[in-house]
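call fold(seq) -> tokens
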Amino acid sequence: MRSASSRSPSERAYGFLLVLYPRAFRDRFGTDLRELFRDQCRAARAGGGGTGMARLWLRTLPDLVHAAFLERLGAAVNLFGASIDSTLPQQPPATGDGMFHTLAHDLRFAVRTLGKSPVSTAVAALIISLGTGAVTTIFSAANAIVLRPLPGATRPGQLVEITRTQGDGRGSLSASYPYFRRLRDGTRAFNGLAAWTMIPLTISTGGAGTTSLGNIVSGDYFAVLGVRPALGRFFGADEDSTPGGSPVVVLGHGFWQSRLGGDSSVIGRTIGLNGHPFTVIGVAPRGFHGVYAPLQTDAWVPLMMQAQVRPGPVLLANSGAGWLELFGRMRDGITRDAGRAELATLTAAQVADAGEPAEFQRFTGVRLASLSGLPSEASGAVLGFMALLLAAAGLVLLIAGVNVAGMLLARAVARRREMAVRVALGAGRARLVGQLLAESVILFLMGAAGGVLFAVWGTRALEQIKLPVAVDLPVSLDLTPDVRVLGFTLIVSLITGVLFGLAPALQASGGDLTLSLRNDSAGAGTRRSRTRNALVVGQLAMSL
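ret:
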């Protein structure tokens, strides 16, 4: 025990205030409380000098008076020995309100504890931010390209892509116009079927022409998707009946903004498409690029205008020309198996009645896949590649988590005396672990917030990368994190916070803590050494 002359004024004042406790309590815990306060004084002076000491006294004095009052009250009713700690209740009430109160208290205490060492907290949060940012960036890209519902579509879960298949399972997205009409007119399982294909366009708005990507679509294309125009209207039934009789066009929102300045008077204006005059009747909504979402589509024209915008023979009556892709919206209560069986029957009838050419004679079956913004044969490969990237980013997060776990373990070793005093005051191990886990979770949530900022920057950088596509297509990716990405990041941060905070929490609260009031035991040192070694080995393994 230190002599009175070697104690600081704050320590002597604290020792004097201990007289507020009952004598039996002082005899039992007085020395431990003085030693704990001495350690807190050292940390306060190192962290903020006089300001740190002032904050320490502002926290300590009310807690000491409150705890002393409860001890005096317990002694008056012969309940001395009950575990009382104003900052850490022994057992929270079993009610929901009590659990939330305890959780809120733990979170507030965790914030104060992390605030005592701002430098190490900031470094740990930065490390977590890098790992979380990598995972969030890759998941945001996968979400935008594969997982996100088709932008602008109503109830996208009902939309399916239609692929003709042969006996060995191989499929073809190509469909002729007569085949499309056979399915559209004969189906009862679908609310509607639509056809479309990509076409290169040169769009002239009065000056030099602009090379763009367009779609030539059936009249019910927008109705089946459930897309609503940002301006004007979409195609009507009369504009999908007479070849060459409907020179109308719907412009993409991006083209309307960039080339026409977002002029609302564009409706009714005549523009040139591949050298032919077309009348603008509508503007698509923001973010809608067509069935293949990553491609920047600037204009949509009716199928009946195929001869004007798609050079070559007229294909509307040619059953042997596979130049269209099909999709449909299933009716409520109809399963995909039922819809597939119906379309397969119609497909077999088309082959038998219309005399499809030899290359399509074998395609008598149908496969339905969700309309996800990519061709069905490509979405699986893209998703697999994204999963590989996500696994790599996950390893980065694991390495960051192991780093932070090592820092938490070092902090736990330094706090064993504090944990010992809390145990001496009656706190159970589960209560200590819960509070230490709260600190870890808050630390990882702070890192997740920084990770989202890194992800916003990272996705913007990815959007500027020119993808090595086989042909020159205008790719337009919106990788901005959305609610789905933020929810994913929150779940990841909570799981990693518990995962990497559990071992340090168990280490800090385990063993014979009463010996820590004097010094650490050799056995505890051995266990900590083993834990540190395991963390180092794990980090090196994941890095390699």
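The first strand starts at residue 159 and ends at 165.
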